Amino acid sequence: MGLEEKLPNGILLTTVEKLVNWSRKTSMWPATFGLACCAIEMMTTGGSRYDIARFGMERFSATPRQADLMIVAGRVSNKMAPVLRQIYDQMPEPRWVLSMGVCASSGGMFNNYAIVQGVDHVVPVDIYLPGCPPRPEMLLDAILKLHAKVMDEPLGPARAALKAERGERTELIPSSVRYAPRGAGK
Amino acid sequence: MGMLDPLKGFGVTLSTMFKKVATEEYPEVKKVTAPRYHGRHQLNRHPDGLEKCVGCELCAWACPADAIFVEGGDNTDEERYSPGERYGKDYQINYLRCIGCGLCIEACPTRSLTMTNEFELADDDRRRLIYTKEQLLAPLLPGMEAPPHPMRLGENEQDYYVHGPELARRAGVPEGRIVETGTEEAGR
Q1: Per CATH, which fold does B31-177 belong to?
Q2: Residues 99-138 of B with CB under 8 A from A
Q3: Chain B nearest C-alpha distance from A186 (Å)
């Protein structure tokens, strides 16, 4: 937009920021980057039983140019790493990366010469999801936690600097607690 | 090709409208996993609050992903964390390596390490996903006392293991209940 960069620190577009973040989080299209067994769980999450479309992820984008969120599902081999980076570079800003499963997050049990020990060596990761493979509910939980992070994202460098100065961190509450119906539970 | 075939398709759609919806309402309704689901780990306690972990590192040896780090320590009469000689001084599980296979649970000789049904572990920081001993230890139930404290239920560690269930009854754990209690059961 550019406007928020020219404004002084005192004038903050907090409501606009909220609106922008809300629209970003409620329509976040994922790019498929299924590499191994985690991709099976990711496909299940897109199916009717878990129905990822409930969270505004209407369709898995086959092209990175129309995607906002890259779900790296599976082990990344050294040969795949440049491809992964290229796909990430082709995605338009703002973009997010979800590292799904232990192999993508840290190499998991494959501590050997062929596997990249964590996809964060190649691309910046916004949220790590452990599990081998994580069940669809775990993926939904990670996506909802990422939504909470997106809602707290600052708009423009002035706000970002202010937030970094305060050292704020988004509280990541388990989704079943966060979205528990009111009046239920203990 | 019959004349009514195009209408048949509408019939399928219409009848589906009256069928039960298959979608799980996950974040609003918590998914109850199978009772023996391989979720987050837990370090259990004896009925008096002493830790069951003896720091033998068998779990770390069994782990195919090298996700567990254990450092044993010596119990003294003044500072006792578990019955017997040794206790787990430092205990860490890296959830970015753990594949939830359960081999550590099978290897544990004192049934100190078990798995809970908790699965919502996603986080945005690698460091926060290395769980330390404080995070993994079971909550203190009524009648338990935080270690270090002397052995309350017997003279030596043999008493704890040989007469374990009996001692638990005497300490007030009701019949049929287990001491390996997670956060969910402790809240009941």
Answers
A1: Alpha-Beta Plaits (3.30.70)
A2: 99-101, 119-126, 129
A3: 8
